[in-house]
Amino acid sequence: MWCFKKFVFLCLWMGWGTVCPAAFFPELSGRVISEGRGVEGVAVTDGYTVVRTDARGRYRLPGNTAAEFVYITLPAGYEVPLQDEVPCFFRRINKAAKKQKFDFYLQKSGRNDDRHVVVVAADPQVYFDEELPALQKIADDMQSWVAGKYGEIPVYGMVAGDVIGDIQRNPGCFGAVKHILYHTQIPFFYAAGNHDLDRGGRSNERSRTMYAAHFGPAYYSFNRGRVHYIVLDGVFALGKDYLYTGYLAERQLEWLEQDLALVPEGSPVVVLTHIPTYSREARSGNYAKERTSQVINNRAHLYDLLKSYRVQILSGHTHYHENYVIADNLYEHVHASLCGLFWQAPWCGDGTPIGYTVYEMDGDSISWYFKPVGDDRSYQFRAYAAGENDLKPEALTVNVWNYDPSWKIYWYEDGERMGEMERYTGIDPVIDSYVVSHRKSFKYDYIGAEPTEHLFFAIPRSAGAAIRVEATDRFGNVYSGTPRKVEEWLNDQSVR
């Protein structure tokens, strides 16, 4: 009796209170095995604690009653195991069992993945079954492009959240989207978006039941070649219908701290999250105007954890395309929505065509380009003749959707280079015209063209001159095109 009282006193003194038994929850254990042998050095976690396998592939994790999964960081050089059409790197914990063992079996890859490719898309956001054929066309484009261009190079995919549009109205879209992307023969990893969360859960922690049933843990990591990939859950549900904010919970930051401790400093790290960490307002210094639902609000602490690495952040959520050079080691790509203007138009609100971004990894080097669906990668901007833009009626205007400050946008008049075009904020004429003429047929009356910061203009000297635009990206790739009328662009849609 005295021993029990002493035990209770110790629990209270250490602040364990009613959760004290969790500290003595039976350990989780198992092995990571390939070809009958243990794999050493693989990170294993329950989402709270990270450990590494020993020389025989064994691991032990201290029990945590709040943990739902045991999962591994898939090591480089091994195939991505698939189950139920998604990567299977996790096991669900049976909370009714007192002793649990989870083994993970890996198959060595026959290909060196130091050089590999990642296809990234954001916000498929399928609301209705009748939108699935349009998604199928996009998937067919992905599969055809990858097979024709990359051959035997390993290719992986990532979806930056909002897999579906309405979890209450049509939760079956989870399975349908998974099925379509699975048949690209590209293994896709997923992040959770705000539309993917259960509505009305009593807390943030209880808002991922449906998502977890399809995809497993909402935050995790994996390795391909020399690149360490991290998928974060940056959506914090407020427990009131669909309301949410952008936020990384402390338990996730603690997990990330342990995860990164196993990654050599200076390594390339790719972070996938639905809600962006940065914004146009932040870029211009108007931090007070940032919407808390549009950015990860405690991003400074994320940046601090990532400061020793060369980081590419991949996000979505806003439905427009934007690139941010946040620091010398930190670049964020905000991906335009795969659904365009909510499947009502072949462009997003900023005029970006429906498409996806392709990242080419070669050792420590990373390069990328935007791939419009139905078009070649050479289609990187849309130029409008003078008189086609109401905001700049005398000017030649250009929308360069994948622009960042390293790009150079030049214009030529009658073969003579006239200099760089000037960037401005405005509305893309094609999507603006399309919305005006099709609004009555839209399912949603609140959608439309939105301002973008990747527009450029120049005023020609002569109305009858021959004009050409040339854009050079940060990797030295040169793209060329001539301006056209809005009507011509409207009649040349890649995706309908």
Tell me the distance between the termini.
Answer: 76 Å
Radius of gyration over C-alpha positions, nearest whole angstrom: 25 Å
| Basic shape | globular
Helical fraction equals: 10-25%
Number of strands: 32
The overall pLDDT, averaged over residues, is 93
Query: Which structural class do the helices and strands define?
Result: alpha+beta
Strand order within the widest sheet? Answer: 15-16-19-20-22-21
The total of helices stands at 9
Question: How would a crystallographer describe the biggest sheet?
Answer: 6 strands, mixed
- Low confidence ranges: 1-24
Strand content: 25-35%
What would the keywords be for this entry?
six-stranded mixed sheet; globular; disordered N terminus; 496 residues; five-stranded mixed sheet; 9 helices; single chain
